[in-house]
Amino acid sequence: MLNLNNFVTSLADQGSWVAYSIIFLIILCETGLVIMPFLPGDSLLFLCGSIATLPHSFFNVELLLILLSFAAFLGDSLNFEIGNHFGKSLTKPKWSKWIKPNYLRKTNDFFKCYGSNAVLLGRFAPIIRTLVPFTAGISKMPYHTFAFFNVCGGIAWVSLGILSGYFFGNIPLVKNHFELLMMAIIVISLLPILLIKFKKNINLTTSHKTLKGNDLNEKK
């Protein structure tokens, strides 16, 4: 995973359905297994899209869109069921090595802030993407509501990642600074979390000032 570019390129060069299967499994596990938020998501989609546009590439962009959208949908559905059936057990301290309490708290804040839309919006933020369906399962969110946002979010996320790579991945400036671009994608993906954190800090500061003002008024 530390050499994602070479890894995916070598898979595509093999010209085998094994390549599609491995990419499918990575997306499935990254979205579907709550203990694997560290797997590549956004950068993998972008990279697959950029390789698909190369002459004689084994990757077909239409097939990638269909297969990986299904993998994203299936992964979130699996994660929802894990949260629904085993969520309370997996949030105990003995699992804290794999499911970081800090990540889970941020995901809960994200879920409370955006409600049902968190299932869709969470697709675009690493770590949050893996933990939102798990949190939705724990909270006993109605499955038909979850499924709707899951489908919309999965298609939107995969399409944005793959098509961005397909149309922009082979521009010389992008190709020459591919590693920096991968880092930029990760940073941009984390922006929703940073915005929520910023908003939460503002609300806490405002509440503190309000309480302090009320105390002063009472003393007067």
Secondary-structure blueprint of this entry?
Blueprint: H1 4-14, H2 17-32, H3 42-52, H4 61-90, H5 101-114, H6 117-121, H7 128-138, H8 143-168, H9 172-176, H10 178-189, H11 191-219
Percent strand: under 5%
Straight-line N-to-C gap: 63 Å
Low-confidence stretches: none
The amount of helix comes to: over 70%
Written as H for each helix and E for each strand, in order along the chain, the element string is HHHHHHHHHHH
Verbal overview:
It is found in: Cell membrane. Its main location: membrane. Residues 39-166 form the VTT domain. One of its GO terms (cellular component) is plasma membrane. With 220 residues, the protein is mainly alpha-helical. The chain has one domain. The chain is 77% helix and 0% strand. The protein is built from eleven helices and no strands. The longest helix has 30 residues, at 61-90. It starts with a helix and ends with a helix.
